[in-house]
Amino acid sequence: MSKLLSDAIEDYLTYRRTAYKRATALASDQSLRQFLAVTGNIQTKGLMPRHAERFQSTMLTAGRKPATVNNRMSQLSAFSKWLVANRYAPAHFCGTTRMIPVPPKAKLRIPVNDFQRLLDTADRADRRITVALGLYLFIRGGEMRTLRVGDIRLDEGLVDVVIHKTNGMDEMPICWELDQELRRWFVAYAADLGRPLRREDFLVPAHRRFPGWLERPDTGNYQPEKMVLRPYHHVQHILDACGYQVQEAGKKSGEGVHTLRRSGARAYFDALIEGRMGDAVAKDNALRQVMTALHHSSVTITQHYIGLEPDRQKRNETMRGIRFLPPMADNVVELRKVNE
Question: Are 108 and 99 in contact (CB under 8 A)?
Answer without folding.
Answer: no
